[in-house]
Amino acid sequence: xxxxxxxxxxxxxxxxxxxxxxxPRMKLxxxxxxxxxxxxxxxxxxxxxxxxxxxxxxxxxxxSPKVVLSGMKPLIIIIAITGVLNMFYTPGEGEPLLRxxxxxxxxxxxxxxxxMIVRIMLLVCGTFMLTYTxxxxxxxxxxxxxxKPLEKIRxxxxxxxxxxxxxxxxxxxxxxxxxxxxxxxKARGADFDSGNILKRAKALIxxxxxxxxxxxxxxxxxAVAMECRCYHGGKGRTRMRVLRFHSVDWIALLIMALLTAxxxxxxxxxxxxxxI
Length: 276
Fold this sequence. Notes:
Elements: H1 2-6, H2 18-21, H3 24-40, H4 44-61, H5 65-70, H6 76-89, E1 98-100, E2 103-105, H7 107-132, H8 136-147, H9 157-187, H10 197-203, H11 205-228, H12 247-268
Antiparallel strand pairs: 1-2
């Protein structure tokens, strides 16, 4: 139950910081570029530069680091498994550090596993910052604006943007609903905490039925509410706030471009730090 409360994806924390005031289109583009940079990065110095950039963004946005780190808790098992697999299955040169049955650990495997764990953590924390500092309405407008050119080939940009933003918006709602259902079932004697992983997974099956019923009920209520307000898609709709790029957006883009150039240079001309 504590794990469910730690899931913060889709939550929005209002604010007036420069990160909050940025155009949602620029934040979406920078998030995509940030992900690309993470997968291009190679070497300790590259990851230090990306981590410094992320820490700066978190500090400017005034989002508590505890909130960002708490969102990592549900992914700890996945991150740990990924690190272990990379550690055991990465080939190396020279003598192995450890042999366990048919599994061998080399120095290269430990380095690769460490970099993979750091990469996933930076990736998750960076993408969290998009939803933390962008309201669902702004996110919808930004996605729709970026997808607008695809309407020429009959791609429903408005509908796709609406679907993605509603999905993100309802993640915290469904998590809260699941938490309430778990509390109610615990009060009736259900046990979700004891036993091995298989027993815990089997204990969660009775949770899925009421959760799906609740999700379908909320979806039906939302559809009825949209119909009552004469919603017929994005055709002919106007916006209260017209998206425009400001100086803070261009400054952020310049910083992101410099970071990208630095990571590419470090990829082409690696600078070893502590022999890594």
